């Protein structure tokens, strides 16, 4: 596996878990969150960097060196923040691989219409539940 520089926006359950997995795989990971206590959710083995700040602010994204990122994963629980940060990463910082969590499944079409690759945990979970019906 190729070593990558990855920025994870949001250090809630999903973001912390993802950042910890990526760090464990040997990637260079920077996590951004505006709630300082969220970083406690990172695994003890996490070896990346933590930035306390609002990812909707360009200076915070610059501090994370987002323009150098191979990938940006936007995982907050706010669809508005996720969509805005994903668009900024692509349009302003020219990051080629940006994936955003869509918290409200009804908004997935808007993300896709704007060219944002999405992960929809609600839909994925529901589909897994449906697959258990025999």
Keywords:
20% strand, 134 residues, Rossmann fold
Can you walk through the features of this model?
The chain is of the alpha/beta class. It has one domain: NAD(P)-binding Rossmann-like Domain (Rossmann fold, 3-Layer(aba) Sandwich), CATH 3.40.50. 36% of the residues lie in helices and 20% in strands. The protein contains five helices and six strands; from the N terminus they run βαββαβαβαβα. A six-stranded parallel β-sheet has the order 3-2-1-4-5-6, sandwiched between helices. The longest helix has 13 residues, at 79-91. The protein is globular. It starts with a strand and ends with a helix. The model has no long low-confidence stretch (mean pLDDT 94).
Compose a concise summary of this entry.
It is built from five helices and six strands. It is an alpha/beta fold and 134 residues long. It has a six-stranded parallel sheet, with helices on both faces.
